[in-house]
């Protein structure tokens, strides 16, 4: 058993299988679970009473096996490739590829019909990186699978990877263009939101566009490799 990243709606079902299945994640995700899991449970409880009820008594899952960057799992002839992507949507993102079925599970690196979720909550959480996320999407889109299983929304094809890559690229370019011309962050966010809604009128999660702009405003090219 594995999860794509530590966020509650992705990882907090894992303890249901404890004792029955081995829980396997990458090192950065294990660290995220331990360091940030409890805070995110509390934050999600504040979202609504319904969510709070569902999280009542939930225990933080503890990984049984932790790998570094990559791990191949042999499920009796079917190989499943677990790959840490490095920091992007979270610090410990992982994609899962099943080569013989040509399927890629992306977690929240990809959503269908939704603006990219940027959990940019300074000063509490600033792990999301638009630049690193874009680099991951460029890499994934260059070697696309036939089927993509996103973190939220419908299953789709390789075009889902290109959609997120193009969105992040435009977001970066439009944000930096305004930053370079000393446009205020408020105006930048308003203009980019208008632009993105025009391009993707049917996408949900519009509230994430401002977070994404704020994140990109704080980022600079040539990020340190060791971050
Ligand atoms: Zn997430």
Automatic annotation (TrEMBL):
Keywords annotated in UniProt: Hydrolase
SUPFAM superfamilies: Metallo-hydrolase/oxidoreductase
CDD domains attached to this UniProt entry: metallo-hydrolase-like_MBL-fold
InterPro entries: Metallo-B-lactamas, NDM-1-like, RibonucZ/Hydroxyglut_hydro
Alphabetized SMART domains for the sequence: Lactamase_B
Positions of the Metallo-beta-lactamase domain: 3-152
One GO MF term: hydrolase activity
Name of protein: MBL fold metallo-hydrolase
Species in which this protein is naturally found: Actinomadura syzygii
């Amino acid at each position: 058993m594995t999860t794509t990243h530590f966020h509650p709606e992705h990882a907090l079902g894992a303890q249901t299988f404890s004792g029955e299945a081995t829980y396997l994640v990458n090192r950065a995700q294990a660290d995220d679970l331990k360091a940030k899991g409890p805070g995110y449970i509390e934050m999600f409880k504040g979202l609504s009473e319904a969510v709070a009820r569902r999280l009542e008594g939930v225990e933080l899952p503890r990984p049984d096996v932790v790998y570094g960057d990559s791990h191949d799992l042999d499920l009796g002839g079917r190989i499943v490739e677990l790959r840490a992507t490095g920091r992007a949507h979270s610090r410990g993102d992982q994609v899962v590829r099943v080569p013989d079925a040509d399927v890629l599970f992306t977690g929240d690196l990809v959503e269908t019909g939704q603006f990219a979720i940027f959990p940019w909550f300074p000063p509490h959480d600033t792990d999301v990186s638009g630049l690193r996320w874009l680099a991951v999407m460029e890499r994934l889109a260059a070697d696309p699978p036939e089927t993509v299983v996103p973190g939220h929304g419908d299953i789709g094809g390789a075009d889902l990877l290109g959609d997120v890559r193009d969105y992040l690229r435009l977001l970066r370019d439009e944000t930096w263009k305004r930053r370079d011309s000393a446009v205020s962050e408020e105006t930048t966010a308003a203009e980019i939101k208008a632009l993105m809604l025009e391009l993707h009128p049917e996408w949900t999660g519009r509230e994430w566009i401002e977070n994404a702009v704020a994140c990109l405003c704080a980022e600079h090219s040539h990020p340190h490799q060791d971050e």
